[in-house]
Amino acid sequence: MEVKVFNEDWKIFQGDAVVFFTFEEGLEELPHEVLEKVKPFAQDENFKGKKGEILKVPVSGYAFKRIYIAGLGKREKVNRNVAREVSAKVAQRLLKDKNKIVLIDVKKAICSQACSEGLVLGSYNFDKYKTKKDEENSKGWEKVYFTNADEKKVILGRVLAEAQNFTRDLVNTPPNEINPETFPQIAREIAEQYGFEVDIKDPCWVEREMPGLWAVGRGSKTKPRFIHLIYKPQGEAKKKIAFVGKGLTFDSGGLNLKPEQFMKTMKMDKSGACAVLGIFKALGELKKLGLAPQNVEIHGFVGVAENMPGGESYRPDDIIKMRNGKTVEVANTDAEGRITLGDVLTYASEQSPDYIVDMATLTGACVVALGEYTAGIFGNNEDFVHTYWEISKKTGERMWQLPLDDELMREEIKSEVADLSNLGKSRYGGAITAAMFLQEFVGQKDGNPIPWIHIDIAGPAWARKPYKWNPKSGGTGFGVRTAVEFILSEDQNS
């Protein structure tokens, strides 16, 4: 999609449609020429400008065919998330009506970036495997122009949303195509395309250096790999930020086999790893545009594995000596994500970053606690958690903090025969005990724990049905935009 800013009068725009936003009961604020044309239609359809209402008006005498009025709802409630959500609905309506070249007037929507994000996110479609394509979306946009908009913010919004859509594609790609062998190839392609450093470790290295990752993935015919991506600014970096993603390309549960209804969507268990690649996709596009961070160095770490039953599979009662020397008793082979992440977090810590963020579809318990639309956020540094959480409120990627300092809960992951158990003794508080397990593998820098955040994205990584700017069921690409916004804010503050 080509996205540009249109700096001339909307009346001379040549294309299919022009879109104007309005507040509820705010039609009178539209340009006079627009109001004159749309008012009779608004009266006929009882259009009030409520959030998500869209009015279509055919016009003549211009070099475009129709005008759309999109309602933002009550003025006092409009924020970035509203602008993003309504823009996504506009995108779906415009595509349904087969518009290919459109102009969006964002004057009433307040936030140029959110509108740009909404248009791109709302246009998402995944029909790669359909022989008969979805006619409404298969060709997509040709050009989208924005007027009364901040050009830099429009471009940033496009880059972030396209990176999220890229992540959605990866999550939605089935496990017979993306597996521990092919996933690293995608990382390599990103590195080559944008000039990043990449280090991909083969199964022999994983077996020797990451016993936890190896144990989880050794039962699969396709053995585990490890990926390390690096973005370095042109000058000397003042901070180093690490992102860690859970990369289970398929999770059958292993020998503790999942029931059929919980196995069907397990291609999404790589969502955290896909988000890491999405972050680097965004960094690469920003680099091409001359907008990349100049003061921060970014590292991405992914352990990729398939958790499958077989003669080589790890078993309940196995004891694994992890990369950092701690021993883990396997209580359940379906609590595999924390074991793979343990080794990857140790490796990330060894690179001495200033911050570590891990994203993982880790526990069903987090979905039970917070629902399908909200991620759990945990951390060992309250300032870091607060900063990241506040950014997520602007991006609309919903998070809620859960506790990490309850010593009674920590007793749940102690083992009688090893240092740790990979499953709590009780069914209760499973998201908390999983986060506490991960904390055991976060290292120190200069004698202090590295500030670390764990984001359990088990709920919002997958959309069971369309909502807000997720127009399709399936992978959502959750976490990418918040991560990049955090990177950019740290770059500015360095």
Automatic annotation (TrEMBL):
Domain Cytosol aminopeptidase residue range list: 332-339
Keywords (A to Z) from UniProt: Aminopeptidase, Cytoplasm, Hydrolase, Manganese, Metal-binding, Protease
Annotated cofactor note: Binds 2 manganese ions per subunit.
Cellular-component GO terms for this entry: cytoplasm
Binding site for Mn(2+) 1: D251, D334, E336
Keyword Cytoplasm in annotation: yes
EC numbers, comma separated: 3.4.11.1, 3.4.11.10
Residues involved in Mn(2+) 2 binding: K246, D251, D269, E336
Domain of life where this protein originates: Bacteria
Enzyme category, top tier: hydrolase
Residues annotated as the enzyme's active site: K258, R338
Summary of the function given for this chain in its UniProt record: Presumably involved in the processing and regular turnover of intracellular proteins. Catalyzes the removal of unsubstituted N-terminal amino acids from various peptides.
PANTHER family: CYTOSOL AMINOPEPTIDASE (PTHR11963:SF23), LEUCINE AMINOPEPTIDASE-RELATED (PTHR11963)
The protein's name: Probable cytosol aminopeptidase
Natural source organism: Aquifex aeolicus
